[in-house]
Amino acid sequence: MDTLTLQSTIRMNNGVEIPRFGLGTFQSKAGEETYNAVRWALEMGYRHIDTAALYGNEEDVGRAIADSGIPREEIFLVTKVWNDDQGYESTLRALEASLRHLKTDYVDLYLIHWPVKGLRHETWKAMVEIYKQGKARAVGVSNYTIRHLEELLSNTELVPAANQIEFSPFLYRKALLEYCVQHGIVVEAYSPLARAQKLEDPRLTAMAQKYGKTPAQIALRWALQHDLVVIPKSVRKERILENASIFDFELSAEDMAEMDTWNEDYWTISESYNPECSPRWE
Ligand SMILES: NC(=O)c1ccc[n+]([C@@H]2O[C@H](COP(=O)([O-])OP(=O)(O)OC[C@H]3O[C@@H](n4cnc5c(N)ncnc54)[C@H](OP(=O)(O)O)[C@@H]3O)[C@@H](O)[C@H]2O)c1
């Protein structure tokens, strides 16, 4: 394996490089909480920030990026169109609003947040238009299952660059990952820490002890070694640093294989949101 760093990237199917590690901002409160988290992350060397219109913190993300002094083109910025804005014209408008909030004239990756029934195809057409206009350097989807991707791929000439999905050692979505790899779609792992709900799992704490690392670091390293893009969220300075301190060790092939057996279909999102079984996303 090549030596990975905090700034290592994966080349997406349109040639654009996405940093393999980023800061998540879901439930980071608008105002100083989000602003400080993004400032600290950028100071520590993070170069990828994940937000969404839904999170209500795009303005703080934008302000932190502007104040960081780091050239905009060195930062990979992701946002998403929320469900209420899906449809062709409304998606174009939603992107304009996000750009205003983020104080930028482009995003690096624009995602369809959820595969909304009846609207997602029109939304994707808008994503293609946004990409053609250069307002997003890449466009992709989120929470798409194999069925949603099959439907999309049979209806478009533009293959999504990424699919952002819930993924952790306790939710190892192997078939979906393999499908995405086969079709050249980068997988981004969200809730890679299972929202801190499984950090005391004895298998994880034992593995952490073995490597002299924290349970969070082991979970993140596992995702990284599966060639996923990983976007843990924290608003605490010490954890933002802890989560990024995973580039000085490597899980052995045996331990990766061991962790691959830990799947228990552990979703942190509520059942009504689970894209694999909720009629909401049919
Ligand atoms: N596309 C989607 O539908 C979708 C859905 C969910 C999430 N996401 C994206 O993915 C990002 C990450 O997912 P997530 O926020 O759901 O969950 P996560 O990153 O798995 O976990 C975040 C939680 O873990 C805590 N935490 C962080 N680092 C820790 C550490 N080292 N030790 C102990 N606790 C730690 C955080 O608290 P503190 O902040 O207090 O440290 C927070 O409560 C989101 O922020 C968002 O950007 C996307």
Automatic annotation (TrEMBL):
Q: Which UniProt keywords apply?
A: NADP, Oxidoreductase
Site Lowers pKa of active site Tyr: list residues.
Answer: K80
Q: Does the keyword Oxidoreductase apply?
A: yes
Where substrate binds, per the record, is at H113
Presence of the UniProt keyword Oxidoreductase in the record: yes
Enumerate the active-site residues.
Y55 (proton donor)
Among InterPro entries, the record links this protein to: AKR, Aldo/ket_reductase_CS, NAD(P)_OxRdtase_dom_sf, NADP_OxRdtase_dom
User: Would you identify the family this protein belongs to, as annotated?
Assistant: Belongs to the aldo/keto reductase family.
Q: Which Pfam families match?
A: Aldo_ket_red
The NADP-dependent oxidoreductase domain sits at: 22-262
Protein name per its UniProtKB record: Oxidoreductase
Which one of the record's GO molecular function terms can you name? oxidoreductase activity, acting on the CH-OH group of donors, NAD or NADP as acceptor
State the source organism's domain of life: Bacteria
